[in-house]
Amino acid sequence: MNRRILLWIHLCLSLAYAKLESAKSRRRRDHSLTESTTKMFALYVLQLSFKCELENAARPIQLISREIGGWYRTAMHGRKAMAFVIMSKNSRTELIDRLRPLLDSLYELENYWCFYAPSAIESKHGGIDPMTSRIIEGWDRVGQSREAEDVRHPKGRQA
User: What's the pLDDT score for residue 20?
Assistant: First the structure.
């Protein structure tokens, strides 16, 4: 009896693991497809950690924001850290390759991270939190740009 239960549990866990691995490979395949073939907008978070307090890092923040170009919002302000929420058609690696020379040259910058913005986010303070509201705003803009690309524009009448 116990052996049957153990075999059944083993079978269930094996099936669940196989489904998980299948979903992971599908996600990887879908992710690489969107990053390499289609040039749709994506939302990224560029998180910055400074050696000094933010009030003394106005120049590097201004240089970075100028280099980003396009749509971005500042978010997640701390004493020595902040983040940019960036909407870009570039892939994450293309974006960071474009920003890397500037980021590496800034003495005030201790470290930086660039990652995809989460599509669902919750915080302690809800919508009042700048990071949460900026990411939600960014995903709304990404959605609007995708809708605009999907709309067919009628051709003018030819005489």
Answer: 67
Half-sphere exposure of 94 (CA within 13 A, CB side): 10
Which residue type is seen at 103?
Answer: L
Q: How far is the CA of 68 from the CAs of 8, 32, 61, 111, in angstroms?
A: 55, 23, 11, 17
Q: Is the pLDDT of residue 22 over 70?
A: no
Cα-Cα end-to-end distance for the chain: 84
Domain total in the chain: 1
Distance (Å, whole) CA 48 – CA 97 = 16
Q: Check: CB of residue 77 under 8 Å from CB of residue 58.
A: no
The parent domain of residue 95 ranges over 42-148
139 bridge partner residues = none
For residue 69, give the nearest of 47, 91, 84, 50 by alpha carbon. 84
- Counting residues of the chain whose pLDDT is more than 70, the rounded percentage is 71
Per residue, the 3-state secondary structure of 104-129, as one string, reads HHCCCEEEEEEEECCCCCCCCCHHHC
CATH number at residue 102: 3.30.70.920
